């Protein structure tokens, strides 16, 4: 299967650049230029009911970042749209974002 082939290539010495290009090309149109140069830790937040950005784009972005070896996390809300509005989801959103910032962009860091 395609997933197995990606795993085999990604675990084979010297194949990482091949995998980076293949994953980026396959998962996100035009991503070879955009995503293969990303190295910064990335928090992807997405709501399933977002009519502005299909959830497949958020999931594909997260998957590409993972396959490219970029530190990343997907925060996915199946019951939210473009804005996280439900009180419990909003509290969780703030908790995760604060933890992410504290870990990857602490105050005073450069």
How would you explain this protein's 3D organization?
The protein has 110 residues and is mostly helical. Helix content is 53%, strand content 11%. The protein contains 5 helices and 2 strands.
What is the compact description of this entry?
This protein has 5 helices and 2 strands. It has 110 residues and is mostly helical. The protein is flat.
Which features does this protein show?
single chain; 110 residues; mainly alpha; two-stranded parallel ribbon
Structural classification: mainly alpha
- What is the strand arrangement across the widest sheet? 1-2
State the share of residues found in helices, binned by percent: 40-55%
How far apart are the first and last residues' alpha carbons, in Å? 43 Å
Average residue-wise pLDDT = 80
Spell out the helices and strands N to C. HHHEHEH
Output the radius of gyration: 16 Å
Number of helices: 5
Main β-sheet description = 2 strands, parallel
> Quaternary arrangement of the chains shown?
single chain
Work out the number of β strands: 2
Beta strand %: 5-15%
Write the layout of secondary structure elements.
Blueprint: H1 2-11, H2 16-27, H3 31-35, E1 42-47, H4 55-67, E2 72-77, H5 87-104
Parallel strand pairs: 1-2
Helix pairs in contact: 1-2, 2-4
